[in-house]
From TrEMBL, chains A, B, C, D, E, F:
InterPro entries: Asp/Glu/hydantoin_racemase, Hydantoin_racemase-like, Iso_Racemase_Enz_sf
Residue ranges crossing the lipid bilayer per the database entry: none
Similarity comment: family membership: Belongs to the HyuE racemase family.
PANTHER family noted in UniProt: PROTEIN DCG1 (PTHR28047)
Origin: domain of life: Bacteria
Any GO MF annotation of the entry: amino-acid racemase activity
Protein name (database record): Allantoin racemase
UniProt-listed Pfam families: Asp_Glu_race
Species the sequence originates in: Nocardia fluminea
Length: 242, 242, 242, 242, 242, 242
């Protein structure tokens, strides 16, 4: 069972963190690797970045199909390109926001999300609603740490932890969802500090893909997610056509 | 990692089927067993049966805690006693309806549920809505086979399969959720026959519990699911008090 | 016209309070009594208690059918066993949460609920949503008085009153719903103190049952609430089978 | 306890029917009468008619306050002028659509509405949603009998009955709500014919007002429904100013 | 292209303000005028006033049809008589609340409404929900200035501006909707002061009508909004019959 | 006032059609042009195509800002890249799906959408829900004509017309929304044929942008839609970084 975690930004250090967190939960029968997108932004902090991370993500999925990958995780909390990736892949593709909010709903009556910059809150809200989890989501909060600073700012861990603690208090939440793949390695620390369950979407999505594969489930055979019709592409993205 | 699947009806043959299906997906590091309730109805086909299956379920959870079980599956599509079980157990407890509808939402835009008797459709609708999955559910259909006849009626497999096929056609669904633990072993057959993903909640819930345990996640530490306050109990259920 | 109010906990003193409040609003042509459950918890303060109050409640309904009762009130704000009771009874069965939130919606644009322990808030929220009244409910608040202390704690009346006053101010509500049958006799006092309508579910449910009977309305003849199919029962609950 | 049922159209024969149906369910301690609007349309079959029935309705409420009436029923399924009437009246005011859909939700999982002309279906849908009952409403159907023909057309009873039967079959409903005050006296007949509960809003609203009065409940004391601020009125409606 | 803005209160000074604001945005090919209702309240500050403004509004629409008007704006934030006006008019009729909340949804993720008296908040909430814009509305706030004082109170501009500023801060909104036609001329000032988009419904509705006319779109030909059936009217409103 | 309509596919013939339809409704003071994307797919018929049309769209917006464009229309019914475009542009950006569904809601109680291929139905549903218009949308139907065949298939006009007629009949809708920019020039023909309002999103969005500009409204100044933070970009999309 081969699972590939795609980091849709181009920062390898972040891919390493993500891979470590995914490997920590994968089962013994699972071959898991993480890859870094080769096209697009160094980090995803706007609708613009997110939209422009999709070609790189889709190239990675296409390569994964060549490599015989069975299922994929999209390791950015905006779940960029999820529907398009599902068209390309034969097996399941799960976004980390998708997996995280579903998981949180099993743990109590309401959860909070803590994300990086305030400008990403809207996207997190859209996704939560889209997955049917809006009724369990009590608040989405920014800690105003840029994505890449999560790895480099010595205060990052403390700031995210305190943002989580404050979110639980304000929202009277039962659990916290970490709203950025770059927070994956903070998960256990924050849980220990604040005493409520904390969900890392990278781990949650890895396990969701593994579970779907274990059950032999893949995207439905009906039309919406069938292979895209062949199409002529122009300009920079010429190679994406067929 | 010890997972226990509780069959909240008292029919051992059904527990055997359930256990087989759960074991088929559990990971190598998982010790899994299935137990049969010792109190209550032989099958669950009404609100009355479902309500009266709860004491037996809770007794099984209590025993599980003594036995050092880490997580539980409630193997009846009405998810009887789920909230109360979460109060008793230290680890995660997942119902098969809960797991099945969440799983189905990863596979496409809409799913159908096929259940046993028409009188159970209302409960399935309530649960689907409760879990936030109402927007993905396109229809809930009965095949009018009593629960225990699933094991004994030679036509059962054919009837359930045709009900699934009809549901997909009528609802234009991407996937089918089997609405009874007793259908667990029909899952692969039906999928092969009708060509869309078919979800068995027993497998889905087993894997959800296993994933939660793998991530170290359990019910939230906040008050709603804390151990129930000690209480004097009277009459037949005297032994449930403290 | 015979109406029976069932107190699904086993505390007779609370039944007396409930009966008094129900009798105060019943019409002259109504024969009303209140009975105490003989099986289960002394008070209902958790999902566990609520689930385990159902067998006693159902036994009381079964006895009511023998006694020629025409309609029932379930006098606990968790509306335990409501669907199952509707299967057993020929006439209408109404829960006090159900009646209270419907009533509150006639009185203004939004109401608050004040309940006993914080751990019961989730159940009240589920029910409010289930009855379609979520859009009118602005908040559910606990006063942290245990159910039985409502009768014995000399400060109870004051504490509940102040919780109601605070709820109205915080939620900008038009009315308050009392979230426990044990608060029934505080209703008039609180209304006088805080100057907004206060709804006691025991009175509201009694009048709803009486009105349904007056109109000749009972549960629908369609399948979901038909008499449960006969079934073999095992163990402690053997006598509930047929 | 004085309850007044206001027929907001100007057809006395219809008021007589309405009064008979209201009296049939009112309690022995209730003084009930029905009055006919003196301003506006002979029947209400459009948004135009409904809007223009409101001045007459409000004049009747104003007279009722002079006459010492304790509570009111608005006997048209469009619930015309309900919010404005609540501002004028000291006691409760209930619309027959409001009461009917609430009542129907106690009887099963879903109801159908059968109304007169198709052009009134939209208003019925708005109201059902507004009262929070949209999740229980499975369909709203017209039988295309004009309001006043309900009293005069010898086939009316048959046509409405068949429309109800068809609605239940198509919607798989548990109950039927009659969507016109002029159908009030058909209620028992239709129930007997089609074998599911049939709700007449006139009876339901009369009993709701009576119940609210019995509980001492009236509109909330907060601002939205306080007496309207004094205002200069011009033209035909000069007398409505103060 | 003739557009008429109907002020449904009887205060000419307010009509002048409204007309000025509508003319400021109308295209060069548009003949636009504003008329004052001749029947009803001097200002609309209650459900009572709003209901009683409808006959005057409908008379103005009827006159407009005689005058060859192509489309109408209803210039009161309660959108009084909108459905009935649509039945009378051949061309489009748009309410200012309707246009304003739709417009606000194009400008960001959430808006606030600032209205006059607190007692009108409920109506604004109903309309916002009715138009499907509830998910974008983060709060509705009153500034407690009576409608006519908007023109006469020297502090009005300052008070409304500060209410808008406070609403944005409290609701974390992206835009503000002015909840009264009488605030139309404050729009640019407030936007300049608080630095977020501010929407005046008079301008928004004028442009919506003009756009619909430009596209040749009018109310649907299906039945709900067809010309009302002829009807005998009685009393003060006799002239409204046919 | 300069408005630019961006066709996010690379087919110039379709841009010509789109430009013609936009010009037909633009006001005399509006300078309007339409441009064709230079990067990406020849037509947009899958999530894959839609995602990969975004870089070309964003390049066109960036060029528009250089050219002094005041507002933009995204002329594909999937509204690709709308949020990202709003970050780049100083003025308003409107998608044709967004404008079309809002417009349809002004014309009656419910509308149908008729789109090209069945696999695009899901995206249309997501958008309709996202814009708050789900409650007005009664069905989304495919006519199974590929996008580019709309211009070349001699039967296209007939097939789309019949699909619209069938949608109205099946959904009992008041209006039809055309679900593809390539259908823009069919709008008047279909309306004449089927006799209900038909909405072309290109015209609707052009007028919405023009109206917003006329009111001086642009995206909110708050953070979500501020200019994206500068970022290093890699690979094919290097030039999109800063």
């Amino acid at each position: 069972m081969r699972i590939r975690v795609v980091n849709p930004n181009t920062t390898r250090a972040m891919t390493d963190t993500i891979e470590r967190c995914a490997l920590a939960v994968a089962g013994p029968g699972t071959l898991l690797d993480a890859v870094t997108s080769e096209i697009g932004p160094a980090s995803i902090e706007s609708h613009y970045d997110e939209a422009l991370s999709v070609p790189g993500l889709l190239a990675a999925i296409r390569q994964g199909e060549v490599d015989g990958v069975d299922g994929y995780v999209i390791a950015c909390f905006g779940d960029p390109g999820l529907d398009a990736a599902r068209e390309l892949a034969q097996g399941p593709v799960i976004g980390i926001a998708e997996a995280a909010v579903h998981t949180a709903s099993h743990l109590g009556r309401g959860f909070s999300v803590v994300t990086t910059l305030a400008r990403t809150v809207g996207r997190a809200a859209d996704l939560t609603e889209h997955y049917g989890m809006g009724r369990f989501c009590r608040g989405i909060h920014a800690c105003e740490i840029p994505v890449l600073a999560l790895e480099t700012d010595p205060d990052a861990r403390k700031i995210v932890t305190e943002a989580c603690r404050a979110a639980v208090a304000q929202d009277e939440s039962d659990a916290v969802v970490l709203g950025c793949a770059g927070m994956a390695d903070l998960c256990a620390h924050i849980r220990d500090e604040i005493g409520v369950p904390v969900i890392d979407g990278v781990a949650a999505a890895t396990l969701t893909v593994q579970s779907l594969l274990m059950m032999g489930l893949r995207k439905s055979g009906r039309g919406e997610f069938a292979t895209p019709p062949p199409k002529s592409y122009t300009g920079l993205l010429r190679s994406f056509g067929s």
